């Protein structure tokens, strides 16, 4: 699917979320499928929100467990789909090595300890299986989510500015449900582990040839926007 088409849909994310998240889910599932067949695969979607991704995995023949801590988020598209549970990504209700694909889209920047979440995702993935994570990079123009671009003046400043302007706190509260996560630290973490091999590391929403951006220290923090990491669990 064209990166440009996804980008156009993103521009209308607020007014037409079904279109954007439906497209993103199908595109993400296709990315996973380049590394692991999905027909009959066991998948867990960590922080799966409203279930767009779980639906797309099931449409490709996988069985998908959705784990989401926020009940309102889970029910935001009506009754949650089958195999949806309220749970925390740090304590997945799964045995070691029990899934083929452990998937998480745009969750890492919302947790206090991203390395801990990745640990847990690797734990439940079988050797040969895939861990897929994406997250919004803090120093990108969208890093502050709805408080952007004022996050460049600091997360707390951006939050106070948003609250003054809108008369309410933002949905993503800096230091509570949104954290400043860069490209460098997560790349070092992924590449420093011996239990996974990093099979893709690149900007999520740009064409594939833009992957060189993540090898430019400093600039990558500003330009990547959203980082995709695909890791293969080693035997
Ligand atoms: C920006 S939303 C992304 C939802 C969905 N993955 C998507 O891309 O549409 C971030 C999600 O992370 C979830 N989340 C926050 N902390 C979490 C945790 N400790 N474990 C699992 N999910 C968590 C939130 O409840 C929320 O649904």
Your description of this structure?
The chain has a single domain, classed as 3-Layer(aba) Sandwich (Rossmann fold), CATH 3.40.50. The chain is built from eight helices and seven strands, in the order ααβαβαββαβααβαβ. The chain has 235 residues and is an alpha/beta fold. The relative contact order is 0.12. The chain is globular. The model has no long low-confidence stretch (mean pLDDT 95). Helices cover 32% and strands 21% of the residues. A seven-stranded mixed sheet has the order 3-2-1-4-5-7-6, sandwiched between helices. Strand 4, helix 5 and strand 5 form a beta-alpha-beta unit. The site of S-adenosylmethionine has 18 residues, from loops.
Radius of gyration of CA atoms, rounded to a whole number: 17 Å
Q: Which stretches are low in confidence, meaning pLDDT under 50 for 5 or more residues running? A: none
Number of helices, where a helix is a run of at least 4 consecutive DSSP H or I residues: 8
Major sheet size, sense and barrel closure: 7 strands, mixed
Mean pLDDT score: 95
Strand-pairing-aware structural class: alpha/beta
Order of strands across the main sheet: 3-2-1-4-5-7-6
Number of strands: 7
Distance between the termini: 32 Å
Bound molecules: S-adenosylmethionine
Name the CATH class: Alpha Beta
Order of SSEs = HHEHEHEEHEHHEHE
Assess the beta-strand content as a share of residues: 15-25%
Oligomer: single chain
Q: Please identify, by name, the CATH architecture.
A: 3-Layer(aba) Sandwich
Q: What is the CATH H-level superfamily?
A: Vaccinia Virus protein VP39
What number of structural domains do the residues give? Answer: 1
Q: Portion of residues in helices?
A: 25-40%
């Amino acid at each position: 699917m064209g990166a440009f088409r996804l980008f156009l849909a993103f521009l209308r994310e607020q007014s037409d979320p079904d279109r954007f998240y439906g497209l993103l889910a199908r595109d993400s599932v296709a990315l996973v499928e380049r590394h692991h067949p999905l027909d009959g695969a066991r998948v867990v979607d960590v922080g799966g929100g409203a279930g767009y991704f779980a639906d797309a995995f099931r449409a490709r023949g996988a069985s998908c467990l959705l784990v989401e801590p926020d009940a309102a988020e889970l029910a935001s598209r009506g009754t949650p789909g089958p195999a949806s549970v309220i749970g925390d990504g740090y304590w997945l209700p799964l045995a070691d090595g029990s899934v083929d694909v452990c998937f998480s889209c745009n969750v890492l920047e919302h947790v206090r300890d991203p390395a801990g979440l990745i640990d847990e995702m690797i734990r439940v993935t079988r050797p040969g299986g895939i861990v897929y994570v994406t997250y919004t990079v803090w120093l990108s123009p969208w890093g502050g989510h709805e408080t952007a671009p004022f996050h460049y003046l600091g997360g707390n400043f951006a939050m106070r500015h948003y609250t003054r302007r809108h008369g309410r706190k933002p949905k993503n509260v800096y230091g509570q449900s949104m954290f400043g996560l860069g490209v460098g630290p997560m790349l070092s973490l992924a590449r420093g582990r011996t239990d996974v091999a990093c099979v893709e590391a690149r900007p999520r929403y740009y064409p594939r040839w833009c992957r060189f951006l993540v090898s430019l220290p400093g600039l990558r923090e500003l330009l990547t926007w959203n980082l995709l990491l695909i890791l293969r669990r080693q035997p």
